[in-house]
Amino acid sequence: QLQQLILDTLDKHSKIEDTRSLDVPDKSDSLEAQLAVLGALNSLLSRDMVKYDSHETFSYVLTPEGAQIAKEGSHEARVWAALPAKGQGIPVTPVQLKKLVGDESAQVGQGNAFKRKWIAKEGDGLVKISQVDSITDTTQLDLQQIQSTGDLKSGDKVLADLRKRKLVIQKKGQWFTVHKGPSFSTSIAKPETDLTADMLVSGTWKTATFKKYNFEAEGIPTAGGALHPLLKVREELRDIFLEMGFAEMPTSSFVESAFWCFDALFVPQQHPARDLQDTFYISDPPKSLPPEPSYYKRVSTVHEHGGYGSTGYRAPWSHEESSKLLLRTHTTASSTHMLYKLAAKCRGEDVEGDEKEFTHGAKPTTKHGEKKDDDGFRPAKLFSIDRVFRNETMDATHLAEFHQVEGVVADKGLTLADLIGFMRVFFSKMGIEQVRFKPAYNPYTEPSLEIFAFHPMLNKWVEVGNSGMFRPEMLEPMGFPKDVRVHGWGLSLERPTMIRYGINNIRTLLGHKVSIESVENSPAVMF
Ligand code: PHE
């Protein structure tokens, strides 16, 4: 309808100087009318039926407060009207004034009325200045003018002031000058949007008008994948490890045997962490495959009878306990596999090639290039970030599964100071500068340290990780030489992620209550 109106008007006058002169159907508001005109013009433009220039206008409208003042007068006029003239009544105190004209008018109006010299102080109260027996409420008059014309004759300074007082807002408008285009006609043929097989067969494609491509159109947003906040933080942590020279460990086996999750780490078979209440056991298949027999023997012996300078636990060894399958409770199970693999050379196994993936340093050689006293050990720095499972009561901060971030370093002559140093660097790269270490207990490390970081938002020290030097009872049965030290530390991925994103309920991060939109919109993190 509007397109037809534009074409007909153009046909009659060959040009539309100002589209505000068009009588746009169903649009009483002029801004809306011009918006509709723009839509119609663009559609005609795409068919080359018209050309147009656009012009900007600014008009002004009243805010609700402005409209109230236009109706009832300005705050200052209301104050003035409420006061007695000097010498003709009892001055009105500020408290009384508030009752008379309301809090807001009393507050704003007093200052303005003083400025205009309409009122004066007398004693504790206020009065009209006697010379002023009538006032002109310019604010009200100006606002009334804006209300009816959208503009103010007296000019920009007053307008700027009214805008600052939030009584008036500026509205941008547009209008257009329209000319005929190369394909001008008064009849609108609906352009074809597709070239069809039928058109080709019948030959109608020769005369059909096609809709022009709009290369400026924004495409439909693609529903691409988005990284979950946890994965973004994982990426950052991975970068920290990689730039510190660590290699990533394989962590794909969620199901482990109790042997690799606990026994190989010298966790006693009676340890409470192995209880059903803490660990998810697998019933099918009922048992794990047996580990390599001689290593298995060394591990069971150190538990039962001791060795390597240890008295052991002196408790009966259960083969059944060791072969249970479970969902790993910590990624240290994977680290243990890797350490066992790292020690293969020390055990005299032939693993050429394999170890180069994750170890550091060359073989010690003599001047003639022969092997010299090679005990097979190569230092290694390893890390992993993956999922672990614990049979926990779930609440706002605990789920039955979460992610652990773990670093392990193996070398000769490492000390506790190296471990502390590594962790200071690591946490400072995460943006955590203030760390403290507290002696702790782990069955597989000695000494063990809990790591605390100062949380500026909570204004307190919070536990952020656990660490320690792996025990000889764990390392020596693997075949590591006595002078090899291995230290490690672990933290959860969830906690730093929740802190980063200001999330305080884990269920907003993981599980069925997570909004996909929030995942898609979550910003990248940068430590
Ligand atoms: N496995 C420990 C945990 O579950 C973390 C840790 C890793 C501790 C390595 C010491 C050495 O919290």
UniProtKB/TrEMBL annotation:
Protein name: phenylalanine--tRNA ligase
Biological process according to GO: phenylalanyl-tRNA aminoacylation
GO cellular component entries: cytosol; phenylalanine-tRNA ligase complex
Pfam short name (any one): tRNA-synt_2d
Enzyme class (EC, first level): ligase
Intracellular or extracellular location(s): Cytoplasm
This protein's UniProt keywords: Aminoacyl-tRNA synthetase, ATP-binding, Cytoplasm, Ligase, Magnesium, Metal-binding, Nucleotide-binding, Protein biosynthesis
UniProt entry tagged with the keyword Oxidoreductase: no
Superkingdom assignment: Eukaryota
